[in-house]
Structures are given as C-alpha cells and as structure tokens.
Amino acid sequence: MKARIYQPAKTAMQSGRAKSQQWILEYEPTDRKQIDPLMGWTGSGDTMGQVRLNFETEADAVAYADRHGIAHNVIKPKERAVRPKAYADNFAYKRKIPWSH
C-alpha cells in the first residue's frame, strides 16, 4: 500500500479557506476503474480508494503512516501569494487605465 499526504486547496466555490488547513492521507489506487457493462457505472474492486483520513498537522499524518507501515509521499502545498488591494486604488490618479463609466 502506498499513500499520499497533502493539504487540500480551497475550492473554487468559496472565497474563504475553510477545510483547507487539515492534512489528508489518501491511498493510491491499486486497481484501475472499469465500466460496468450492464448499468454503465464506473467502479473498481479497490476498497482502499474510499479511505480518506484527516489530520491536524503533517507530522501527525506522517507518524500515522510510519506507525502502520504505510509507504507515503508527502506533497507540500504551494505558498499563497497575497497581494494587498484597496478599493481606493480603483480611483487613483496614477492608475494606468483611467476609470470611467
């Protein structure tokens, strides 16, 4: 068994960063997904693909994987670039493109 440990990105449906601070441990798929010929549903016999564990810190997730003998790959999150913005900048005199109606 091999697992991925990562911190999820924020969803596109929200502006906040809720539920993106935890670390996730997910098992790598061992079986490829197949289409059921009768119903057309997609599935596989790999039940470990349904397991998703949440941890408060990266160290907790790595410790869990080491304690249970799970080979793991830690994916570090990219740093978020925060550019300060102000509403007043829309009306600044030195703005490159003049604002008008």
Task: Quickly describe the structure.
10% of the residues lie in helices and 23% in strands. It is mainly β.
Structural account:
The protein has 101 residues and is mainly beta. Helix content is 10%, strand content 23%. The chain has a domain at 2-35 and 47-77: atu1810 like domain (Double Stranded RNA Binding Domain). The chain has one helix at 58-67, and strands spanning 2-6, 23-27, 34-35, 42-43, 52-55, 71-75. The chain has a 4-stranded mixed β-sheet with strand order 5-2-1-6, with helices on one face. A two-stranded antiparallel ribbon has the order 3-4. A hairpin with a 6-residue loop joins strand 3 (34-35) and strand 4 (42-43). The termini are far apart. The mean pLDDT is 88.
The fourth-level CATH homologous superfamily of the domain at 2-35 and 47-77 is atu1810 like domain
Order of helices and strands, N to C? EEEEEHE
Averaged pLDDT: 88
Discrete helix count: 1
Helix content: under 10%
Characterize the main sheet.
4 strands, mixed
Q: What would you call the shape?
A: elongated
Question: What's the CATH architecture of the domain at 2-35 and 47-77?
Answer: 2-Layer Sandwich
Low-pLDDT regions = none
Portion of residues in beta strands equals: 15-25%
State the assembly state of the protein chains: single chain
What value does the Rg take, in angstroms? 22 Å
Which class do the helix and strand fractions yield? mainly beta
Distance between the termini: 60 Å
* CATH topology term of the domain at 2-35 and 47-77: Double Stranded RNA Binding Domain
